[in-house]
Amino acid sequence: MKADEIIYRLVVSPGDIDPNTGKVLLEAIRDVKHDGLSVIRSVATDQEIEDLVRERLTIKPGGAVRVVEAILEIKVSDLQGLVRENWGRLFCIYDETVPRKYSDLPPVPTHATLLQRVPPAKTAGRNGQMKDDQKKLYDNLVGNRIDIGSFRNGLIKQLNQRSLDGEFELSS
Questions:
Q1: Which superkingdom, per the lineage (predicted)?
Q2: What is the DSSP letter of 167?
Q3: Which residues of 146-171 are buried (b: 16+ CB within 10 A; e: fewer)?
Q4: How many domains does the chain have?
């Protein structure tokens, strides 16, 4: 990916937003150290974004309805600028095709995964370093929160309504 490209992290609720304050919880990015965070590249078409958001909002029959509560953005160069002395970059980002919930649909080519570089086991202060690094990412992302209604001419707002209307529940 080019340094000037922007990536978006969708924060889906329930789970990643404090329901009382609307604040994005730090837990919304904790998976960065294990499986990584699913992000969308800014080069994605509206259709590709719709396809990826549909995947995130799809629920099993009877499951809690999901909606996108926040869109966080970061420029790739800003992500690459998050470094620690004698360690280098804290995070890596890779294009990644992931399986779809609707298996008959083709993969979306503009999905990427954001991963944390983790210090080796038994490194002194390892857990504290990882938490500090995650906080740096969190602060950068939350500081660049986008209004859902204005993103891509209200695309996410429309998808949220479709989710609330029950459109994204898998068949039993």
A1: Bacteria
A2: T
A3: eebeebbeebbbebbeebeeeebbee
A4: 1
Answer yes or no: is 172 within a domain: no
How far apart are the C-alpha atoms of 166 and 20, rounded to whole Å? 24
pLDDT digits 0-9 by tens, 102-144: 777 778 888 999 999 998 889 899 999 999 999 999 999 999 9
Residue 140 lies in a domain: yes
In a domain, 1, yes or no: no
Element housing 73 (H / E): strand 67-75
Query: Which residue in the block uniquely carries the two structure tokens 């996108």?
Result: 68
Closest CA to 73 of 152, 165, 162, 161: 152
The pTM (predicted TM-score) of the whole model is: 0.90
- Domain extent, residue 157, equals 6-164
Environment class of 124 (CB within 10 Å of its CB; exposed 0-12, middle 13-18, buried 19+): exposed
Whole-number Cα distances in Å, 91 to 70, 82, 87, 162: 21, 7, 11, 34
How many Å is the Cα radius of gyration of the chain?
17
